[in-house]
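Repro:
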Amino acid sequence: MPRLHNRTILKTRRKELRNRLTPAEAGLWSLIKDSKLGRKFRRQHSVGSYILDFYCPAERLAIELDGQAHNSEEAQAYDQERTAFLNGLGIKVIRFENNLVFKEPELLLAEIIRHFGRKY
């Protein structure tokens, strides 16, 4: 069976993305790293051919931050395809607008925690 998580072929790209986090990604990472929510998160974790912004293996939970690039029809179709693939593997995907990280971080964290313990 082929490797599904963190495939070697995507290693360089994952590293590039980790080294160049967007301001929103860096802000969220500072809020969730070091198990601050009682769960370990990984940043720029790949599943299949997709690289997730953040992933919690214990909860099978992916967190995606969306900026303006996700507003086009093409991007939304891609996001739907990606979410369906991940859901098919039992991974729940939750999405947040970038600005929520800066404007309402407590709300964002509460929403993440709300998904802990749920099976999909």
